[in-house]
Specification:
Helices cover 34% and strands 24% of the residues. By secondary structure, it is α/β, with parallel strands linked by helices. Strands 3-2-1-4-5-7-6 form a seven-stranded mixed sheet. The two termini are 27 Å apart.
Length: 190
């Protein structure tokens, strides 16, 4: 991500602006397709203002919400940390291989990336980091726009080629659309 993009997102989150709200239908689909047990260890990468992480905690998951943006982390702490049991937040740049080493290898049952994977510069490296962090049998949930479905701002989605690469090397997986011609959710099992 370019420096100017980072400045934009810092200002965006500092102003209290989110990206796309979490719906009850989205969480219902997550609960049905992923079925995390109560107490599941979840890493939410790119948590933004924390709405998705908060919903994961409400499902009974022990959720670590992370974002590289200081304003994002501050917003999540102000809104949710200490209020929702099982939710913690930490500043972490997931694209920095060294920074990610602070997280426990095999320490998560689920890793989520909601509307963030399309922005990552090296998607293959991000997938490798996720594999290191997932426990055996763990699940990676990637919620993303597909570039082909976007008339404008195609850069926020992933291409068909990137989607094919995303699916490679997983034991099993599935995908579902959150809305017709909208956002797709990939559920990849280790």
């Amino acid at each position: 991500m370019k420096g100017s993009d980072r400045e934009y997102w810092e200002e965006h989150f500092a102003a209290g602006d989110g990206f796309r709200g979490v719906t009850a239908g989205e969480m219902r689909m997550f609960a049905e397709q992923v079925a995390p047990p109560v107490g599941a260890r979840v890493l939410d990468v790119g948590c933004g203002l924390g709405g998705y992480a908060a919903e994961l905690a409400r499902l009974g998951c022990r959720t670590l919400a992370t974002d590289w943006a200081t304003s994002s982390v501050s917003a999540v702490r102000d809104r949710y940390e200490g209020v929702l049991p099982g939710l913690t937040v930490q500043r972490l740049d997931f694209e920095d291989d060294e920074a990610v080493t602070v997280l426990p290898r095999g320490g998560f049952d689920v890793v989520t990336m909601r509307l963030v994977f399309g922005f990552m510069g090296d998607k293959e490296a991000a997938a490798a980091r996720v594999r290191r962090l997932l426990a055996p049998g763990g699940v990676w949930v990637v919620t993303t726009s597909l570039a082909e479905r976007l008339s404008a701002r195609r850069h926020i989605g992933i291409t068909g080629e990137e989607a094919a690469e995303l699916l490679e090397g997983w034991g099993s997986g599935l995908w579902y659309d959150l809305e017709p011609n909208g956002v797709r959710c990939f559920v990849l099992c280790r």
